[in-house]
Specification:
This protein is an alpha/beta fold and about 350 residues long. The chain has one domain: NAD(P)-binding Rossmann-like Domain (Rossmann fold, 3-Layer(aba) Sandwich), CATH 3.40.50. The protein is built from 13 helices and 14 strands. Helix 7 packs parallel to helix 10.
Length: about 350
């Protein structure tokens, strides 16, 4: 794909990683609201070129795409200099990749974030910066002997966790990915305290929805649905009773844009962003929901736990709900149906060889 850089009439919102799943949904929402958007993305992940074409076709005059890498300081500095705000999502997103290539993981997640912060500090210090962090900064949280089995899911034995993990929970970085994102998370916070930048950190749980090209390492809800659509086995690492909270993408977009709109009220703060306890589910419960949707349960293959896997994680979202007057509005079943419709339309007719190649790129 050749770079696309139409002339933008107004200072744009810069979205790093803006051709990824959440990034392109944010870009689309901003453009629909009348904003101009500058996307910086190296288009290295599966689906990003397709998302770029989708954005171009929908908003040819409002969205510009700069094909560049977050590790390229000059490219970042140039894009930040044009921006009225920065939504920083560009990242290496898989624990497994961080185990294979920890130096690359550090360079993308930590140094890439420092490139953004320094570009804002030096050249555009009034621009708000909202950063996509992760629940992985809390580490494993609980060992298997600290959870109990309740039906088809684990529940924590520690009472104060039963309403979810709050931002007061100490960081316990686990895996190179957790370390690189955790360091970036703290840099973003510290640039607000030390340099006065208008930054916000969003520690995200599982976001799902249309335009997500899920794979085994990232985007597990879309990945499980895709495997069911293709009638392929699903690898389950651990017992399958592990729990996550899930947030539909339009609700995530509303939270991001809410933080941008209220930046002076929330600057310097860190929030957990997820579906909360109401939208939590285990891997086995997701398989049951998929079986209801598809009228067939995908075959399962159980594997050993992977490093950094959390037996249980649910976000306490009370802080962001109060600060932004926000709450998740899309129930799990409704969100899953919407994702299934999109995946069916995109992948159901995919030839086996094309599907195999797409999986290989993921």
């Amino acid at each position: 794909m050749s770079p696309v850089k139409p002339r933008l009439r107004h200072p744009p919102v810069l979205i790093t990683g803006g051709c990824g799943f959440l990034g392109c949904n944010l870009a689309d929402a901003l453009a629909q609201s009348g904003e101009t958007v500058l996307v910086l993305d190296n288009l290295s992940r599966a689906g990003t070129e397709e998302n770029a074409e989708w954005l171009k076709s929908r908003h040819p005059r409002r969205i510009a795409i700069e094909v560049a890498d977050i590790r390229d300081f000059e490219a970042v500095r140039r894009c930040v200099g044009e921006a009225r705000a920065v939504l920083h999502l560009a990242a290496q997103v898989a624990v497994t990749t961080s185990l294979d290539r920890p130096v690359e993981d550090l360079e993308i997640n930590t140094r890439g974030t420092l490139n953004v912060l320094e570009s804002v500090r030096i050249g555009n210090p009034r621009a708000p910066v909202i950063f996509a962090s992760t629940n992985k900064v809390y580490g494993k949280l609980l060992a298997e002997n600290e959870v109990m089995l309740s039906g088809q899911r684990y529940a924590p034995l520690i009472p104060h966790l039963r309403s979810g993990v709050s931002e007061r929970t100490p960081l316990d970085l686990y895996s190179p990915y957790g370390c690189s994102k955790g360091a970036a998370d703290q840099y973003v916070r510290d640039y607000a305290r030390v340099f006065g930048l208008r930054t916000v950190v969003l520690r995200m749980s599982c976001i799902y929805g249309p335009r997500q090209f899920g794979n085994e390492d990232q985007g597990w809800i879309a990945h499980f649905l895709l495997r069911a659509i293709r009638n392929s086995p699903v690898n389950v690492y651990g017992t399958g009773y592990q729990v996550r909270d899930a947030l539909y993408v339009s609700d995530a977009v509303a939270a991001w844009l809410g933080a941008l709109d209220r930046i002076d009220a929330v600057r310097g703060r860190i929030f957990n962003l997820g579906g909360g306890a109401v939208n939590s589910l285990s891997l086995r419960e997701l398989i049951e929901l998929i079986a209801e949707l598809r009228r067939a349960e995908p075959p399962l293959r159980f594997e050993r736990w992977r490093p950094g896997d959390q037996p249980w994680y649910v976000s306490d979202i009370s802080a962001i709900s109060r600060a932004l007057d926000w709450c998740p509005r899309t129930p799990l079943r409704e969100g899953l149906r919407a994702l299934e419709r999109w995946l069916d339309g995109r992948f159901a007719q995919t030839a086996p060889e094309a599907a195999r190649l797409q999986e290989a790129r993921a």
